[in-house]
Write a structure and sequence with these properties.
The complex is a heterodimer of chains A (about 375) and B (about 400). Chain A has about 375 residues and is an alpha+beta fold. Helices cover about 50% and strands about 15% of the residues of chain A. Chain A is elongated. Chain B is of the alpha+beta class and about 400 residues long. Chain B has 12 helices and 12 strands. In chain B, strands 3, 4, 5, 6, 7, 8, 9 and 10 form an 8-stranded mixed sheet that branches. In chain B, strand 6 and strand 7 form a beta hairpin. The longest helix of chain B is centred in the middle third of the chain and has 36 residues. The relative contact order of chain B is 0.12. Classes of the chains: A alpha+beta (about 375), B alpha+beta (about 400). Chains A and B meet through strand 10 and helix 10 of A and strand 11, helix 11 and helix 12 of B.
Chain lengths: ~375, ~400
């Protein structure tokens, strides 16, 4: 083997910087193990290892999808990466909703969820969850906008609406020509969902009074409709009503000063003697139990979205750590920087646990076809939130 | 604890009794300033990411600037008093605290520890009155944790120094009257400190936009291109990074107290909220899961208060007995605990916890900066690790 010649220019530079006497004294004390480490460190640096591709789905949970479904997942991912990621930061900081994105977003949803009637359920629970995960992986505000419009507002129509209501409202909502909102929470009623808004039934329909709060989507522009849940005065059971934005007595005020999901427009809604025709009451809602059934479905999608947010965070953190050089090294691949490495290795299984929890839940849902099973509902959402 | 004891400010184990009258007086002054002047206006500044210049004269009137420095028009407070003031100011608003910490602790601290007598006479009295504001430029775009290997250079040309390089995250730099720039001396390769005055040609500062924590303190990117300063503006006693580390050691306890202040605020706001907020027909404070969170927060805050108090008493008795590890442990531990406390508080407020109007959201967001700045959690961990094992594990 030919002898390897040291680079003379490097040696010359080294001797300019080094106190030769001190170096010789140090070399005299060197232990064989130290020497091996030094040589390894220099050779490692001379042959930089290729940085592995970043993958937040370490155990390939997407494997549950068919090849066709994977195409849909990729379509959502590339839309989010190409259209949303470049612009969303500025909207987030200003607390504004990216209206410019709605037409393109609608096209992407049309291409993935399909345009057959009542596309809301076209993908089935697992793929819907994975689509939500892909949205939240890039931006949770965009996911929330979608979740409120599609899952909550359209979901209510789908689950509780009459055939006429579905025919009238679902097509424009599916095309995002109208934007939906969903109002349950009130200023003094959050966890304890006992609505105080009242519906005084009359022959012509209902009259709604009182105020409610915190509805995402309510302050977004293109012609929103709102599904509003109210207690029925006669038996105190919860009912649901479709309210169009320009209905007299219905007013919306944007909630300012949020520090999370800033691109989502949440609003305070005030209902003052709002007259709603009987035709706008959702006949499928007769008690809070119906709302709870819808919430169970919605929560499973939120669990997927949280897995997506965690995936996005993990991927961004790994990318940063791969690129950021301190103490002359990248933070991660070397055996040093144990704390940073350890954080990333902790994040990865947690992302996986979130995905698996959500996946097993949605599969259970798929099995039971119409309604979500009771047992895993809190667990899927709460496992993801904790992590 | 009686409810009264909480309403005076969270002090479950009567830390009050261990304070001197001067220290109690400082606490009361800062607390009233925060309640009356800061809280009514700060959220709007925070959301717009603007600095509340209107508050500077009132902050100056509290006579805290210069902290422990004796003479030169500075208040000569005990380290405990400075710590208590820091916690109280953070309990009001973290951005304002950082503004004060940068000019008082870092900039004035550098001039005090490393400056000549003339430099101290020239700068410290005016800075103590906040007629002049200081900034401290150590971190660079590519050098954060590895602070001893900064790349900005200072080259001596005759009786002047020429500075070249870039700094990042420098608080107050866009409007400061004087910025302490740390740079490598081209001749010796050692780190030195240089005072760059406002308007010096070759110095430019651009405010960093889009922060999600401490939004109302203005951090800047600095570029130095052939920025010439007089030899008289070099800090003569900054001979190597070890001198920079002395300045940092003496401000690190402040950051630990800052975490205490954020955590105190979070506990107090959350306790009040859970007593008022009713769900299922009774205050949520009556639910076991809520009480458990409040108690966890209280335990953390109480432990942090005493840890920080003890560290500062040691500093007051004899600063030399406080090791780097002791300073780092308080910052590392308190920031990590406080980050959990503000998160629990945010959780207890539900959706109201992400609205600025309830103040907790601001503390929650600001703690993210406290957790990372003045030595990341990781670096402070390794400083302590080195001290207790004798093995440096940084690389």
């Amino acid at each position: 083997m030919a002898p390897v010649l040291p680079q003379m220019s490097n040696l010359a530079r080294m001797f300019q910087q080094v106190n030769l006497g001190a170096m010789v004294r140090t070399l005299g004390n060197i232990q064989p193990t130290d020497l091996a480490l030094i040589v390894k460190s220099i050779t490692d640096r001379a042959r930089p290892k290729k940085i592995p591709a970043i993958n937040g789905d370490f155990y390939d949970i997407s494997d549950v999808l068919t090849p066709e479904e994977r195409v849909i997942q990729q379509a959502v991912r590339s839309y989010m990466e190409q259209r949303v990621r470049p612009v969303i930061g500025k909207y987030w900081e200003r607390g504004e909703f990216p209206h410019e994105l709605v037409p393109g977003f609608a096209r992407m949803i049309g291409e993935t969820f399909g345009s057959r009637p009542y596309a809301i359920d076209a993908l089935g629970p697992t793929l819907t969850g994975i689509a939500a995960m892909e949205m939240a992986r890039v931006d949770a505000s965009m996911y929330t906008f979608f979740g409120v419009h599609w899952g909550l507002c359209m979901g209510s129509l789908y689950l509780f609406g009459s055939e006429e209501q579905k025919q009238r409202w679902m097509p424009p909502l599916e095309r995002f020509e109208k934007i939906g909102s969903w109002a349950l929470t009130e200023p003094d009623v959050g966890s304890a969902n006992r609505c105080r808004a009242e519906d005084h039934g009359t022959a012509r329909g209902g009259r709604l009074g009182h105020q409610r709060a915190r509805r995402s989507g309510a302050a977004t522009r293109p012609l929103p409709i709102s599904i509003s849940f109210c207690a029925h005065v006669s038996d105190h059971q919860v009912n649901a009503f479709i309210i169009e934005r320009d209905t007299p007595g219905y007013s919306v005020e944007k909630l300012e000063g949020k520090t999370a999901l800033r691109a989502v427009q949440n609003a305070n809604i005030r209902l003052e003697n709002v007259h709603v025709s009987e035709a706008n009451r959702l006949p499928g809602v007769t008690s809070f139990r119906d709302v709870a059934r819808q919430l169970a479905v919605a929560r499973s999608v939120v669990a997927w979205a949280m897995a997506g947010t965690a995936m996005g965070a993990y991927e961004r953190a790994l990318d940063y750590a791969n690129k950021r050089v301190q103490f002359g090294r990248r933070s991660l691949p070397s055996s040093s920087f144990k704390t940073g490495w350890c954080r990333c290795s902790v994040m990865s299984p947690r992302c996986r646990a979130c995905c698996c929890g959500s996946a097993s839940y949605t599969r259970a849902m798929a099995r039971s076809a119409t309604s979500a099973p009771r047992w895993p509902r809190p667990s899927a959402a709460s496992i993801c939130a904790r992590r | 604890m009686t409810i009264q004891a909480v309403e005076r400010g969270l002090d479950f184990y009567q830390l009050d009794a261990l304070l001197t009258p001067e220290e109690r007086d400082v606490r009361e002054r800062v607390r009233s300033f925060c309640d009356e002047e800061v809280l009514p206006v700060i959220n709007r500044y925070w959301e717009r990411a603007e600095f509340p210049f209107e508050l500077v004269p009132k902050l100056a009137a509290l006579n805290l600037t210069g902290g422990v420095i004796k003479g030169y028009g500075c208040p000569g407070l005990s380290a405990v008093a400075v710590g208590i003031a820091t916690a109280e100011l953070s309990r009001g608003d973290g951005s304002l605290e950082t503004f004060l910490g940068v000019t008082s602790g870092l900039a004035m601290g550098s001039i005090y520890h490393c400056g000549s007598e003339e430099q101290k006479q020239h700068w410290l009295p005016a800075m103590a009155r906040m007629e002049k504001i200081g900034a401290f430029g150590l971190t660079e775009p590519f050098v954060g944790s590895d602070a001893s290997h900064i790349r900005t250079t200072a080259t001596r040309v005759g009786d002047r120094y020429v500075l070249n390089g870039a700094k990042r995250w420098i608080g107050n730099a866009s409007f400061a009257d004087v910025v302490v720039i740390w740079a490598q001396d081209s001749e010796t390769g050692k780190v030195g400190g240089f005072l760059v005055e406002k308007g010096t040609p070759g110095f430019a500062a651009t405010v960093i936009e889009g922060k999600i924590a401490k939004r109302s303190v203005l951090n800047a990117d600095i570029t130095l291109s052939n920025c010439e300063i007089a030899e008289a503006n070099r800090l003569p006693n900054a001979r190597s990074f070890r001198d920079t580390a002395v300045v940092l050691k003496n401000t690190r306890y402040g950051v630990a107290w800052e975490a205490v202040g954020h955590a105190m605020a979070a506990f107090e706001i959350a306790r009040e909220y859970t007593l008022k907020r009713e769900q299922f027909g009774k205050p949520i404070a009556s639910y076991q899961l809520v009480q458990q969170k409040l108690v966890q927060m209280l335990g953390d805050v109480t432990a942090m208060q005493f840890m920080c108090w003890r560290l500062c008493r040691l500093l007051d008795e004899d600063a030399n007995q406080v090791t780097e590890g002791m300073a780092s442990l308080a910052k590392q531990h308190c920031a990590a605990r406080a980050r959990q406390v503000v998160a629990l508080g945010r959780e207890l407020l539900g959706g109201n916890g992400i609205l600025l109007e309830n103040h907790l959201a601001r503390h929650f967001a600001d703690m993210e900066a406290v957790y990372t700045y003045e030595g990341t959690n990781e670096i402070n961990t390794l400083v302590v690790g080195r001290e207790i094992t004798g093995i440096a594990a940084f690389v």
